[in-house]
Amino acid sequence: MLNTIHDSGFKPAGRFSRRSYLAWNMLMGFFFLLIGCVIALMLPGINLDTLGSSLSSPVIILFIFLYGVAIYFSMVFTIRRLHDRNHSGWFSLLLLVPVVNILFALYLLFAPGDQQANQFGQPRTTRGWENVLAILYILVLILLFIATFMISGDSLPKL
């Protein structure tokens, strides 16, 4: 049984509720956005049209490393979410299959977790800051959806 008091979101062992899953993904997004802004400030005058040819090898290696870190934590969060549904973490590999990954991501977002203990431990209590970030994540997604239609010049879909 896992100790939920010292439960770290950075390890695949344990469970994530839907809100915890959204919150940790939002936290990761904030972190990488911050890193991206710092890198952009450190590399002024980069032309986006010739981005690949204008970056030095260490910067490219840094981007590859950061991308690997993002993929790793995304998989960790997905494994924890699968554990909440009492599924093996190996199902997280479905994220690598085109089209299936979209349906799988929707499943992870909408399927409720087990209310009782399962083979992966007791349900994890969603912390207050996780609730706030999860709500913020949903609001940002809605705003991005609306902005996409406004920028493309199309009107919003009629309900």
Protein topology:
Elements: H1 18-42, H2 51-54, H3 57-84, H4 100-110, H5 128-152
What is the CA-CA span between the terminal residues? Answer: 47 Å
What does the radius of gyration come to? 19 Å
Tally of domains: 1
Q: What best-fitting shape do the alpha-carbon axes yield? A: globular
Taking the sheet with the most strands, its summary is: none
Total number of beta strands: 0
Low-confidence stretches: 1-5
> Structural class, judged by helices and strands?
mainly alpha
How many individual helices? 5
Describe this structure in words.
The chain has one domain (8-152). It has helices at residues 18-42, 51-54, 57-84, 100-110, 128-152. It contains 5 helices and no strands. It is mainly α.
Summarize the structure.
With 159 residues, the chain is mainly alpha-helical. The protein has helices spanning 18-42, 51-54, 57-84, 100-110, 128-152.
List keywords for this structure.
single chain, 159 residues, mainly alpha, globular, disordered N terminus
